[in-house]
Amino acid sequence: MTTWAIGDIQGCHDELRALVAELGFRADRDQLWFTGDLVNRGPKSLETLRYVRSLGDNAVTVLGNHDLHLLAVAYATKRKIKSADTIEDVLGARDRDALLEWLLSRPLTHYDPARQTLLVHAGLVPQWTADTAVSLAREVEGALQKDPRGVFDEMYGDQPDKWSDSLRGMDRLRFAINALTRLRICTRDGRVDLKMKGGTKDIRAPFKPWFEWDNRESRDARVIFGHWSALGLVRTLGVVGLDTGCVWGGSLTAIDIDAVDTKPVSTPCRGYQDISE
C-alpha cells in the first residue's frame, strides 16, 4: 500500500488524472491525501469533485479556502461569485446537492497518529500543537454541520488577527478557519497577516513563514500543507509544502508520505490563470 499526498488541484482535473495514472494508483491498495482547494480557478471543478468523491475511502481531503468559498456561495446569503471563479458548473450540476453535502462533510485537518503526520491546507500558529489544531478543526466542523449558513455568513474577515485560547464564539471559529485555510506568515506570538501572497522576499519583520518559528508547538508532528504556490515544493523543518502552482502553469505534485525524502512525482500544468493578474 502506498499513500500519496497531492497538492492543490483547483479544478485542474485533467492534470490530476494524468498524475494519478503516473503514480500507478490502485484503489485496492493505495490511498490519496489531498491538501485542499479541489476547486476553483481551473476549468473542471465539477469533474474534480466527482472524481475525488468517487474514490471513497481511498481519498482523504481537507478543506481549503477555495472549497469553503464554493460552500459559502452555495449555502450562505452574503458570499457571491467572483469574476475569476470557475465554480458555476458545480452550482448548476444535476448532482450539486450530493457533491456539496460531501464537500461540507470534509474535515479541516487529518491526523495520522501512527505516522505522526498532520494534513492541513494552510498552517498553524506557533502556539498550536497538532492536537490543538485537530481540536479546533473539530469545533469548526461541528458548527458547520449544525448551522452552515450561520457560519458562512460570519466567516469572512481578518479579525481577530491574534490567537488567544480565550477567544469564543464566531471569533474563535473565524480565527481557526483563517489559520487552517489561509495562513502563510505570522509572528512568534501568534499574530497573523493574511494579506501577503508572494514569496519569502515579500515578508517583513516581525513576520516569518508559520513553519519557521523555533518555538512552534507542532514540531513533534510532520505537517503536510498546500496553499502557498509562490514557495513551490517545500521539504524543511518537519513540513512538506505541496502547492506547486498547477493552476498558474506550474505542476501538480505528489509525494509518497512514507518516503518524503525521495523524488516527488509531478505532472506539468497548462496554466489556466495569469499569476500577475
Describe the structure.
With 277 residues, the protein is of the alpha/beta class. It has a single domain, classed as Metallo-dependent phosphatases (Purple Acid Phosphatase, chain A, domain 2, 4-Layer Sandwich), CATH 3.60.21. 30% of the residues lie in helices and 16% in strands. The chain is built from eight helices and 13 strands. The chain has a five-stranded mixed beta sheet, with helices on one face. The chain has a five-stranded mixed beta sheet with strand order 4-5-9-11-10, with helices on one face. Strands 7-6-8 form a three-stranded antiparallel beta sheet, with no helix packed on it. β2, α2 (45-54) and β3 (59-61) form a beta-alpha-beta unit. The longest helix has 17 residues, at 130-146. It is globular and about 45 Å long. The protein starts with a strand and ends in a 9-residue tail after the last strand.
Number of domains: 1
Tell me, what's the shape?
A: globular
The whole-number mean of residue pLDDT values reads 96
Portion in helices: 25-40%
Number of helices: 8
Low-confidence stretches: none
Main-sheet strand order equals 3-2-1-12-13
N to C succession of SSEs: EHEHEHHHEEHHHEEEEEEEE
Amino- and carboxy-terminal Cα gap:
42 Å
The proportion of strand residues reads 15-25%
What does the largest sheet look like? 5 strands, mixed
CATH architecture: 4-Layer Sandwich
Count of extended strands: 13
Determine the structural class based on helices, strands and strand pairing. alpha/beta
Regarding quaternary structure, how should these chains be classified? single chain
Query: CATH class, anyone?
Result: Alpha Beta
* Rg from Cα: 17 Å
Q: So, the CATH homologous superfamily?
A: Metallo-dependent phosphatases
CATH topology: Purple Acid Phosphatase, chain A, domain 2
